[in-house]
């Protein structure tokens, strides 16, 4: 019953996917959607093409398992026959066999059968024991699990892509916010310098330098805005949202959250990784295949039954109340394999090698997981340390800039010093943003390496 309801549910999912395929993609709404990163991930699980493809593969496996279940059920078929014999085939017989007065060896033509023949029957076949059917029934759960794990892997891969794309846009927003503060500050400084220039206290060169600085900041602003626009379009694509659909992101970045929870390797279990689970399930499926070839040496037993009726006549009177002759037969069919030209043995050898290869693949995957964890942990720690340094450099550069501005307003500093301090601040901010994005990417890779996505 559980299997039946699961099939019904997945059939409903398939109908939804077909409806989506006909529509190509969700309709674009004029209303702006507001997504947290969790909302984006959940939306992607329902609309991303890779996930839906994996879900269809799971549905196909469910249907295949249902087909396999039918192998153990009775196979019932019906057949009907109508035959008209305008010219009945004749055979020669020795008439002396029927009449002793006829000389022996006297051959006469004799027609066996009548002009019209009709029959109908129902056939029933039931598998009582078949090794291949037995193994197929046993393997259903493993194959279904394999399909479900394929869906889970697709969701994890999509989740990692969505995290990176989402926080890339959020990082761009943070960069724009700080850059807008820089532009506002530079505009204010430029306005003050122009007033001082009108009073003849500074040179025009000082004003021009600030104009160049402002233009560079505005150009950087346009560049980051364009990058944000491209990043937002990539996020929409990653989650299966129409590119033209307005979207607003609600989550923000926290350095503390990015630095938190560096896991000790001793707390990790390989089964946390979906790739490892897939390998284990594939190994079990290969073992069932090996079992199928090994059990092929056993005999198979089927029961069959047949019930029907027939009538023969020289006049077409089948629809009249005439006598039909019924018949019933049943029996058992036993097939015992004796010698297959060593083919079965070779098939067993090949299936065994596939199982051995699965074991090697699992060991290789474990080593890859260990390496992946070491690389991701080291990269994340290095990037966090770099982020802390860049954050400190940005704070120092801001202090230097503010001190330089105070000196400049008091007349003990030059505009060149201001521009130099502001350039250093911009460089420190850019380095900080790059370090921030590197931490985001490396943290997602770290979480994926430990099976925490």
Automatic annotation (TrEMBL):
GO cellular component, as recorded: cell outer membrane; efflux pump complex
Pfam families reported for this sequence: OEP
Coiled coil: 348-375
Signal peptide positions on this chain: 1-23
Superkingdom as given in the UniProt entry: Bacteria
Example of a GO MF term: porin activity
Subcellular location(s) per record: Cell outer membrane
Keyword annotations of the record: Cell outer membrane, Coiled coil, Membrane, Signal, Transmembrane, Transmembrane beta strand, Transport
Protein's UniProt keywords contain Nucleus: no
Record-linked InterPro entries: OMP_efflux, TolC-like
Entry's family note: Belongs to the outer membrane factor (OMF) (TC 1.B.17) family.
Stated name of the protein: TolC family protein
């Amino acid at each position: 019953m559980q299997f039946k309801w699961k099939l019904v549910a997945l059939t409903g999912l398939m109908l939804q996917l077909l409806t989506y395929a006909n529509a190509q993609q969700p309709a674009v709404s004029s209303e702006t959607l507001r997504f947290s990163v969790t909302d984006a991930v959940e939306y992607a699980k329902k609309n991303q093409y890779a996930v839906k493809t994996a879900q269809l593969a799971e549905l196909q496996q469910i249907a295949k398992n249902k087909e396999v279940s039918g192998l153990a059920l009775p196979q019932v078929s019906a057949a009907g026959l109508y035959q008209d014999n305008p010219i009945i085939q004749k055979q020669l017989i020795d008439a002396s066999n029927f009449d002793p007065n006829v000389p022996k060896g006297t051959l006469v033509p004799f027609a066996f059968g009548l002009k019209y023949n009709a029959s109908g029957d129902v056939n029933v076949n039931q598998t009582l024991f078949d090794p291949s059917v037995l193994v197929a029934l046993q393997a259903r759960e493993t194959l279904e699990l394999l399909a479900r794990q394929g869906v889970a892997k697709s969701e994890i891969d999509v989740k990692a892509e969505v995290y990176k794309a989402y926080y890339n846009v959020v990082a761009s927003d943070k960069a724009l916010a700080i850059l807008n503060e820089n532009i506002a500050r530079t505009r204010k400084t430029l306005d003050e310098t122009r007033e001082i220039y009108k009073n003849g206290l500074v040179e025009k060169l000082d004003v021009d330098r600030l104009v160049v600085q402002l233009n560079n900041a505005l150009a950087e602003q346009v560049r980051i805005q364009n990058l944000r626009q491209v990043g937002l379009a990539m996020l929409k694509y990653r989650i299966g949202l129409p590119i033209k659909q307005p979207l607003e992101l609600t989550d923000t970045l926290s350095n503390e959250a990015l630095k938190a929870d560096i896991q000790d390797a001793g707390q990790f279990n390989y089964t946390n990784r979906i790739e490892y689970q897939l390998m284990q399930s594939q190994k079990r499926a290969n073992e069932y295949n090996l079992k199928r070839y090994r059990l092929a040496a056993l005999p198979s037993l089927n029961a069959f039954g047949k019930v029907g009726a027939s009538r023969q006549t020289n006049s077409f009177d089948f629809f009249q109340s005439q006598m039909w002759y019924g018949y019933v037969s049943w029996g058992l069919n036993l097939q015992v394999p004796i010698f297959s030209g060593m083919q079965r043995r070779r098939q067993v050898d090949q299936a065994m090698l596939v199982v051995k290869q699965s074991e090697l693949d699992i060991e290789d995957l474990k080593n890859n997981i260990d390496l992946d964890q070491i690389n991701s942990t080291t990269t994340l720690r290095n990037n966090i340390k770099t982020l802390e340094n860049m954050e400190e450099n940005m704070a120092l550069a801001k202090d230097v800039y503010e001190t330089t501005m105070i000196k400049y307003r008091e007349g003990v500093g030059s505009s060149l010093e201001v521009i130099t301090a502001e350039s250093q601040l911009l460089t420190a901010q850019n380095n900080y943003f790059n370090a921030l994005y590197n931490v985001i990417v490396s943290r997602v890779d770290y979480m994926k390496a430990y099976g925490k996505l």
